[in-house]
Amino acid sequence: QVQLVESGGGLVQAGDSLRLSCAASGRTFSNYAMGWFRQAQGKEREFVAGINRSGGSRNYANSVKGRFTISRDNAKNTVFLQMNSLKPEDTAVYYCAADLGGYGGSDNNAYEQWGQGTQVTVSS
Description:
By secondary structure, this protein is mainly beta. Helix content is 0%, strand content 52%. The strands form 2 sheets. Strands 2, 4, 5, 6, 9, 10 and 11 form a 7-stranded mixed beta sheet that branches. It has a 4-stranded antiparallel beta sheet with strand order 1-3-8-7, with no helix packed on it. A hairpin with a 4-residue loop joins strand 7 (68-73) and strand 8 (78-83). The chain is globular and about 40 Å long. The termini are far apart.
């Protein structure tokens, strides 16, 4: 198994940027596709972005396409989510997740390991 710890959340104003990080430990990080999901209060968890094992393929939810960028550094066992032009509707707890042998798709059932989440709050 791989253990995941997110960081970088906080309170920002609309239009600001944040960079989330997810540090992985345990098994070989490069064997895992990685994803970012979010859950707003009272809503279901939703896919935000995913990246394959090499970092050469990325997927995004339509709601964040053009504003968010997922990346990874396999040498540092870390995946990032750069969030620009933040909106109040981006407010949520953000989770990173790991999918052994996967490709970074949007199906949360494909991800075996999850972090504890980091809160992102965007004020208007």
